[in-house]
Amino acid sequence: MYHYIVMFKNYLSFERNFSSHTVLNYDIDLRDFTTFLELEGIETITEVNYKVARRYLTYLHKKNFSKASLARKISSLRSFFKFLQARGYVNDNPFLLLSLPKKDKKIPRFFYPEEIEELFNCIDMNDPLGERNLAIIELLYGSGLRVSELCSLTLDNLHLQRKIIIVKGKGNKERIVPITDSALEALNNYINNSRKELLMKAHSNSSVLFLNHRGRKLTQRGVRDILTRLIDHSAKISGISPHMLRHTFATHLLDNGADIRSVQELLGHSQIATTQIYTHVSREKLKKVYMETHPHAKEVKK
Q: What pTM did the predictor assign?
């Protein structure tokens, strides 16, 4: 089993160009399944049939996994057995016939404009890293980048005179993303000042755009830590993730009249259904405004 997992991971990494984070999730799901097979006394992959797949789903239910986690684990196994079937290691895919549990539709959390302003105000521009942090927030909010995309940016991806960035997204797909005037100013300040100082610390000439305090490539965890430290200085914001800024980017565009196809293109979504969740966010905002401002609505609330 472990031999097949290694082959599958290599396929995801080198042929499909999946991110290390995605490959890690597949690895976790497949190793969980391997543990189950050991408990069942199943020694070969060819012994896995529909009945085994059903028992595994029951096993996961008993472990109280969320619907989203159940769906992901079964989806991982579908992809794994599809890979094995295509290469002739198994005859069929026993997980295709399983019904995936419907995920609970969660409306993404986003910031209201005044909260975004508060976040920008929390950046200490007297701190040598303030210029970097400002450029990070400007790109996450102003261009809707995924944090993985942000951390992968190099100087070659920037076309500042044209006010665009070439972003390499999921599946190694490239897209052109515009940047705001304020992001342009923040990037120029960071590149010309504090980034040079950070490179000197590492004695490096790296082309990676965003660097940590040691002058090395900034990681996704590093970005999360930066945001966490920022809101520690705010009484108005509690709980934040880099992805919330991407949610906010999409929500604010739709709230101000952008069409959904344009937002889909800017976010790099392959399916418009993925983008449509943000229309629900906008409707929730309208509902909230209505309940807080219409006289009869307020009377009903009382």
A: 0.62
**Residue 3 is a catalytic residue:** no
| Residues of the chain by 3-state class (helix, strand, coil), percent to 5 | 65, 5, 30
Of the residues 54, 78, 175, 243, only one is catalytic, namely 243
Phi, psi torsion values for 83, nearest 5 degrees = -65, -45
Residues 6+ apart with CB under 8 A from 218: 151, 208, 210, 211, 212
Annotated catalytic, 246?
Answer: yes
Which tokens in the block code for residue 228? 């966490």
Report how many domains make up the chain.
2
> Is residue 221 in some structural domain?
yes
Supply the range of the domain harboring residue 162: 113-291
Q: Is the C-alpha dihedral spanning 66, 67, 68, 69 positive or negative?
A: positive
What confidence tens digit (pLDDT) does each residue in 198-238 have? 999 988 889 999 999 999 999 999 999 998 888 776 656 66
